[in-house]
Amino acid sequence: MKPAKVDVQPAERPAMENWLWVSGHGAHPARDAQADPLASSQGSWTLTQPMYSAKELDSVKVVDRPPETVGDKLAHGVVKLLRRSFDFFTGYVAKEIPKEVLEQKPIPVAELRAKRDILTDKQWLLRIILLESIAGVPGMVAGTLRHLRSLRLMRRDGGWIHTLLEEAENERMHLLTFLTVSQPTWLTRALVLAAQGVFWNVFFLTYLVAPKTAHRFVGALEEEAVRTYTHCIQDVESGLVPEWKNKPAPQIAIDYWRMPADATLLDVIRAVRADEATHRFVNHSLANLDQKYDFNPFALAEASPEIRGSVPGFTREESAEFARQTQAKLLGKNEEPGKTVNRSSSSALHLASAAPRCPTMAWRALRPQSNQPRTAAIRIRHPPPAGQGMKHSSACQVPAPA
Ligand SMILES: [Fe+2]
Ligand SMILES: [Fe+2]
User: Fold this and answer.
1) What CATH superfamily is the domain 54-292?
2) Cα separations in angstroms, 30 against 13, 21, 34, 36, 43
3) Of 50-64, 261-275, 372-386, highest mean pLDDT
4) Least distant ligand from the CA of 167
5) How much of the chain exceeds pLDDT 90, in percent?
6) d(CA 167, ligand 2 centre) in Å
7) CATH 1.20.1260.140 residue window(s) in the chain
């Protein structure tokens, strides 16, 4: 008996204008966002980031981590060189405007711009778009390389990959947010294309041979990003960028950072700066870890925004203590998740050395690296359901990032 004939014809294809696709300029103009919630790049289903409180946004500071090792100095030097070159070619200025000028009503913005004492809104935007298009590269390169390493060695990664990819995603959202303010010219697009081609490959090779230095480089780069956004915020607050003074926040930013509907572009820039401070903190902390054996302390919980905004990064001992406190919270042996605890790093060393060795997590015996007292605060990001999946093995109670 012959088998029934199977219809192998593909389903009827929808007309081209009804396909779900997103062009480089946002959602396809033919799609109706009201009729089809999947048709738009806007909406609460897109990527989100926790909203910062005003206190958390204010806690972000410009901080520099002095380089210690040869790799640190190299990374620091390259970042400074890149910054100076970039400042020169984009005409960046960071002059102190006298108080008496700022107190004039109205502030002579046109005159200051003519003298090239301040940046225009277009100059700020050009700089931000170029920076953000580059900033999205390192996390993706590092995440990809660690992903491939995990596949190649058939070994767990220790929770680094997701944090790195999340950073890349966050930077891409920064770029997409500012693109809604104004579209770049073809010259800007060409610059982004060229810079991406060079930077991806250089960072890829650097991360292959010296991942610690690569993370330190990103940490130093983010120090500069915090510095630049702090300058931008001060200019907008002072009235030196009148076009942005009360400009409403783009919808994509309201969705992403869960902002109130009446948020302004200035609120968005402050949130972006807090994100950059997080990248600074995370990358400097990761650079202090053993790249092969240590797990990522931020895989299951993140430090409070105040810590991320004001400390360059955790030392390896502080990361160990942070992981230990996270473990205690997730196992229900400590305070409730979401509540902040403070503990000095001296007890961290004690706790770390007293911890059971965990061969899979390979959180190895720690060496003291710093005598500076510092506190660590924890905010559990994703508290798991009670009794689920936190015991890595009977010998190791440490939460088990993959
Ligand atoms: Fe960014
Ligand atoms: Fe960043």
Assistant:
1) Alternative oxidase (1.20.1260.140)
2) 17, 10, 12, 11, 17
3) 261-275
4) 2
5) 48
6) 7
7) 54-292
Per-residue model confidence (pLDDT) at position 291: 92
Residue 179 Cα to ligand 2 middle (Å): 16
pLDDT of residue 100: 83
Ligand nearest to the CA of 272: 1
Number of the ligand closest to the Cα of 221: 2
Contact 244, 265 (CB under 8 A): yes
How far away, in angstroms, is 277 Cα from ligand 1 center?
Answer: 10
pLDDT the model gives residue 302: 87
53 contacts: CB under 8 Å, gap ≥ 6: 305
Count Cα neighbours of 54 within 13 Å in the Cβ-side half-sphere. 2
Nearest ligand by distance to the CA of 138: 2
Cα 83 to middle of ligand 2, angstroms:
14
Joined together, the tokens standing for residue 194 give 């060229």
Q: Three-state SS for 378?
A: strand
Identify whether the C-beta of residue 335 lies closer than 8 Å to the C-beta of residue 329.
yes
Ligand number with the minimum distance to the CA of 139: 2
Count CB atoms within 10 A of the CB of residue 263. 19
In this prediction, residue 2 carries a pLDDT of 55
**Cα 72 from Cα 368, distance rounded (Å):** 19
CA of 210 to the centre of ligand 2 (A): 20
Q: 394: which 2 tokens?
A: 């009977």
DSSP type of residue 242: G
Instruction: Compute, in angstroms, the gap from residue 127 CA to the centroid of ligand 2.
Output: 14
327 contacts 399 by C-beta, under 8 angstroms: yes
Mean of the per-residue pLDDT values of the chain: 77
383-392: Cβ within 8 A, 24+ apart: 383/329, 383/330, 383/337, 383/338, 384/330, 386/332, 390/327, 390/330, 390/331, 391/331, 392/358, 392/360, 392/361
Within the chain, how many helices (H) and strands (E) appear?
14, 4
Q: What is the pLDDT of residue 331?
A: 79
**CA of residue 148 to ligand 1 center, whole Å:** 25
Q: Closest Cα partner for 379 from 338, 330, 332? A: 338
Please tell me the number of the ligand nearest to residue 282's CA.
Answer: 2
